[in-house]
């Protein structure tokens, strides 16, 4: 597919008409912001010659360039693909701007220099101006240095970084304002919440008192007191979480007590199962 595209492009270029072109009605000048171009303020430059004298322009003035591009054979206007003005500064840096045709096919570049300062990389001073015209259908591409200009363009302002700024006046005093603590609930709601949280424990002890605690079936194993001590330690840890510990301290101690209680409970259940099997 790519090969067909390349071949098609090559055929189109090969079959395109190749013409000699010429530049006509070439005029250049420096105008005021609202000044109309006329024969007095524009200078005509012949093809491949250079304007005598140097153009001088302020940032508020306009650079005006107009010309036509036509075939040498029948003087018909053409619109090449590449029409540029190239500005070359004394330090070698260049800026290239596009020149577009109007509805009648006449090429015109009319811009206030202050507006075009970014295109010139905010350089100021002397520039060589060249016209560049090129196209696959043009037999004689043009690169024509037609004038020099001394443009007083505005210099770009580069602010000093804050790290390099020196301040001698005293700075404003920095005052810290801490966030006010959130409003706590009333004592009645806190006490009610405490009672609700402790109610399962109260119910547990109440049921134990009513049903009774039977230690007869407890196997003779050292894991039995360890299991009950672990349970008591977990309840005590919950109490300390309420009055002293934070969540991270509680989880640290709970990981040790929980693991020990789990292992002891597993051993107690295994001992109870073994004692039942022996009795059967």
UniProtKB/TrEMBL annotation:
Taxonomic superkingdom: Eukaryota
Cited function: Subunit of the oligosaccharyl transferase (OST) complex that catalyzes the initial transfer of a defined glycan (Glc(3)Man(9)GlcNAc(2) in eukaryotes) from the lipid carrier dolichol-pyrophosphate to an asparagine residue within an Asn-X-Ser/Thr consensus motif in nascent polypeptide chains, the first step in protein N-glycosylation. N-glycosylation occurs cotranslationally and the complex associates with the Sec61 complex at the channel-forming translocon complex that mediates protein translocation across the endoplasmic reticulum (ER). All subunits are required for a maximal enzyme activity.
Pathway(s) annotated for this protein in UniProt: Protein modification; protein glycosylation
UniProt subcellular location: Endoplasmic reticulum membrane
Entry-linked PROSITE patterns: PROKAR_LIPOPROTEIN (PS51257)
Name of this protein: Dolichyl-diphosphooligosaccharide--protein glycosyltransferase subunit 2
Cleaved signal peptide residues: 1-16
Record-linked Pfam families: Ribophorin_II_3rd, Ribophorin_II_C
Family, similarity comment: Belongs to the SWP1 family.
Assigned keywords, A-Z: Endoplasmic reticulum, Membrane, Signal, Transmembrane, Transmembrane helix
TM annotation in the entry: 192-211, 223-245, 251-269
Domain Ribophorin II third: 25-150
């Amino acid at each position: 597919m790519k090969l067909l595209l390349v071949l098609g492009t090559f055929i189109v270029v090969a079959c395109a008409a190749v013409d000699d072109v010429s530049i006509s009605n070439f005029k250049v000048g420096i105008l005021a912001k609202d000044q109309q171009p006329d024969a007095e303020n524009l200078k005509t430059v012949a093809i491949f010659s250079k304007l005598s004298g140097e153009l001088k322009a302020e940032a508020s003035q306009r650079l005006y360039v107009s010309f036509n591009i036509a075939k040498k054979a029948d003087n018909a206007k053409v619109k090449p693909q590449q029409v540029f003005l190239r500005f070359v500064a004394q330090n070698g840096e260049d800026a290239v701007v596009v020149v577009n045709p109007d509805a009648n096919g006449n090429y015109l570049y009319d811009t206030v220099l202050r507006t075009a300062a970014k295109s010139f990389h905010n350089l100021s001073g002397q520039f060589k101006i060249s016209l560049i015209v090129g196209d696959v259908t043009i037999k004689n591409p043009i690169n024509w240095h037609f004038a020099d200009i001394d443009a007083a363009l505005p210099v770009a302002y580069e602010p000093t970084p804050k790290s390099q700024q020196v301040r001698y006046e005293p700075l404003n005093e920095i005052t810290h304002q801490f966030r006010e603590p959130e409003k706590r609930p009333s004592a009645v709601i806190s006490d009610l919440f405490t009672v609700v949280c402790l109610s399962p424990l109260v119910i547990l002890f109440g049921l134990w008192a009513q049903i009774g605690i039977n230690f007869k079936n407890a196997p003779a194993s050292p894991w039995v007191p360890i299991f009950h001590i672990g349970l008591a330690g977990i309840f005590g840890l919950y109490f300390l979480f309420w009055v002293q510990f934070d969540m991270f301290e509680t989880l640290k101690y709970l990981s040790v007590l929980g693991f020990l209680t789990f292992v002891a409970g597993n051993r107690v259940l295994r001992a109870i199962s073994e004692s039942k099997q022996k009795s059967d």
